[in-house]
Amino acid sequence: MHKYSKQSRLLLAVDCIVFGFDGETLKLLLIRRDFEPEKGNWSLMGGFVQDKESLDQAANRILKQLTGLEGVYLEQLFTYGDPDRDPMERTVSVAYFALLDINQYQNQLSTDYHAEWFPLKKTPKLIFDHQEMVEQAKKRIRYKAALHPILFELLPSKFTIPQLQTLYEAVFNATIDKRNFSRRILATGLLVKLAEKDKAGSKRGAFYYRLNRENYYAAFQAFMNFIPNPDQLR
Question: pTM for the whole thing?
Answer without folding.
Answer: 0.89
